[in-house]
Design brief:
2 domains; 58% helix; alpha/beta; 356 residues; 15% strand; five-stranded mixed sheet
Length: 356
Amino acid sequence: MRTVKHFSLHRIVETELRVVSDVEAGVLPVIQVEEAVIRDYARREVWPHRWVTLFVLQDLQPLVRQLTPSPALPLPGGGNSLPPGGAAALEHRPVVNVYDLADPAGCYIFVNRKAMMKEGYWDDALAIQGLLAHEHAHPLAENEATRSSRCLHMELSPEFRLPIAESEIENRKSKIGKLLALLADKLCLYAPRELFANEMTIRSGFGEALLHLNRRNVANASRGVAGREGLHRQLQEEVAQGNLTPAAADLLLLIGDLKGYLDLALEVAPFYRTGRESDARELETILEAEVFPHLEPGVPRAYTALRDQYVALRADLTPAELIAWGEGVLDVLAGALVEKGLILRYRLRVPDKRDA
């Protein structure tokens, strides 16, 4: 059991803010930003919450334990499913909003100090504002498309068409399948929730904070290229030792690139969607200069195609219409992978009662 270092109650307009923290120092600036975010949202008459509980924690292990194996709280992002990666993936997210779509009276905001420190957000008030405003935007941004996204089920089946030993395929097939499932889930099924939350954040007056946050994210991506070079060397060493064929090494490097950088399209597209083209181009100029030249050639092409899919997403899509849109997203992913000899077969559908 962790020791509570801070507990307080605050009244912001008509909302009660309850704060609980096991962090020794640095909590007050987070509380002040949260108060300001609530106050700004409440002025816009779209604010549904009568109470917000803000947990500022060393890490999110308490939340992960509570959601594993069966959720005792409403789920992050609302609805009846966890975000890509399940409960364990929440441990790496800097801020999480847990809310109940059926009861908009309140929500739980979890701030992860460990992840905030790792990403460089903890001492950056404007980045914290962007994070908190984005998380609070999720329930406000609910629409037909986000509801439809929760209705869909995705099936993936990778087929290898490259010079690779059967034993090597079997050893890596499961891992590759899991990586692709997580990536496809995030870029396709979960994408509408992220896109519309980012769009709501911008339209609600937090565009500068979100732009600042994404400047940091793009800078982090630029620094992450160094880690990518380490993976490249590791794969080449396995090839030299006879543990990996060159074709398999190329495929694994591409999957790493897709996983590490394609989701940046989710951050940039909302600026195009809200008419802030100069902000979007600022972010993309950095990517084009400092990130994309170091990646597999198919990655920037896939990024551009995904961004265009995201810009074109409508808020009123039914499940059947969202399937057509989602197939376009998966076409982009499949098109990048086929260049390295992996055929990605997929199916999007609305589960029937027999799946229950």
